[in-house]
Amino acid sequence: MNGISGGSTQAARDDMIFADATALSEAIATRQISCVEVMRTYLGRIRRFNPVHNAIISMRDEDVLMAEAADADADLAAGRHRGWMHGFPLAVKDLTATAGIPTTFGSPLFADNVPTQDCLMVRRMRAAGAIVIGKTNTPEFGLGSHTYNPLHGLTRNAWKPELSAGGSSGGAAVSLALGMQPVADGSDMMGSLRNPGAFNNVLGLRPSLGRVPAGPKPEMFVHQLGVNGPMARSVRDLAHLLDIQSGFEPAAPLSFAAPETPFADCLEGGVNGLRIGWIGDWDGYYPCEDGILDLCSRGVEQFAALGAVVEPLIPDFAPDRLWTTWTTLRHWSVAGSHAAFLANPETRNLMKPELVWEVEKGLTLSALDIHQASVARSEWFQCLIGLFTRYDAVALPTAQVFPFDAKIAWPDRIAGRAMDTYHRWMEIVIAGSLSSCPSINLPAGFDPSGRPTGFQLIGRPRGEQQLLQMAARYEEATDWLSMRPAGAL
């Protein structure tokens, strides 16, 4: 782990920004660097890069943030260390409630919404020392994997600003890749931690269902498609943030206890002898842009070089059945949350077409439709459980396309095949989303024009520890996570 030198030179500031967050945390805790200097440096990064990339929105007043950083320094001087995120500037995804800071969901319907209470995950990150500086941009209500909305505009890719940042945690991924914050939170319903991770060459982990409870609203026994989770530029940082976000919450009926030993202390396991099943494009079912499968398969083969066994895998399950299951449950979930807006003509006019479509589809569903989709989802889970008797993880690309032109709404064609919905182009993520198993995006490199991509590993239920260990060995064996966008330094 690289140390961080104090000082105000440009080299020292760059050292602070792109050392991993674990090193930054240690430097703050040992008072090698002040929280005031950390805040000043990150605010400077935001002023420099955010006007082009538009990743962070609803910024709080800089004088207030500097005063909070000074308070964090005063705590350290008095011997009070808040936790791993002590003094970290943190921008929270704009789908997540933050007390006193706008949470707009990217929608005109919530343009003036300022929660009075933090989401549980935000409370945990604040308790660990984070200073919330604002929010990160997201598609309207998180629908779609291209980050733009009528309130806050378009977020641009960290590597190539003319391209999409992915989504819905697009602002989080871009701000992380460009060093506008040390780590980032996000959420994932249909790949929203993994896809922007792939589009911006960072890590995104979709945790097991129940690993990271949300709140403040009571969590439900149903509608369990989306989860919150961490993004980072190193595996150790990812593990530290997951440790902070995780743990049982009595008000969250599906939550469970964090492991006795933190994830960040369990990263030393090897991959020799592990087995990985490479699903790839599922025997041609998923159309993929030229270059995606080559880069991702090469990434997975890195594990073979480390002693794992990698072999082709076609699950004994119809992938189109996954799509039908997914769309049914997603329509139902979205309609349950937004049907009242559709019923009111004044609010309906403020809804984007994709949201109207989801709600209208959801309102046509019967209880039997939901039951049948739930049965199919359970059968997919059982299929995976069977696969995990032979494999330690299964792998497939994180995205079917490279980052695309930021000016289009969504890709309507891949490899000559038409996409029939606004989210069909990212169908490849739903095998992980429906499984309730942990799934991580790992960077797989760049195409000749410099567009990033990644692949996903799906692990056993509640198997984050092994996935993080595998990711740590991959990080050591490759250079992708050490690369930075042109102009970032």
Which descriptors apply to this entry?
489 residues; eight-stranded mixed β-sheet; Amidase signature (AS) enzymes; 15 helices
Give a quick rundown of the structure.
This protein is α+β, with helices and mostly antiparallel strands and 489 residues long. It is built from 15 helices and 15 strands.
Description:
With 489 residues, the protein is α+β, with helices and mostly antiparallel strands. The protein has a single domain, classed as Alpha-Beta Complex (Amidase signature (AS) enzymes). Helix content is 37%, strand content 13%. It has 15 helices and 15 strands. It has helices spanning 10-18, 21-29, 35-53, 62-77, 120-127, 170-177, 194-200, 235-245, 292-305, 319-343, 345-348, 353-363, 367-387, 430-433, 464-477, and strands spanning 56-57, 89-93, 131-136, 148-149, 153-154, 184-188, 203-206, 227-232, 275-278, 309-312, 393-397, 413-414, 417-418, 439-446, 452-459. The strands form 4 sheets. Strands 6-8-7-14-15-11-9-10 form an 8-stranded mixed beta sheet, with helices on both faces. A 3-stranded mixed beta sheet has the order 1-3-2. The longest helix is centred in the C-terminal third of the chain and has 25 residues, at 319-343. The protein is globular. The chain starts with 9 loop residues before the first helix and ends in a 12-residue tail after the last helix.
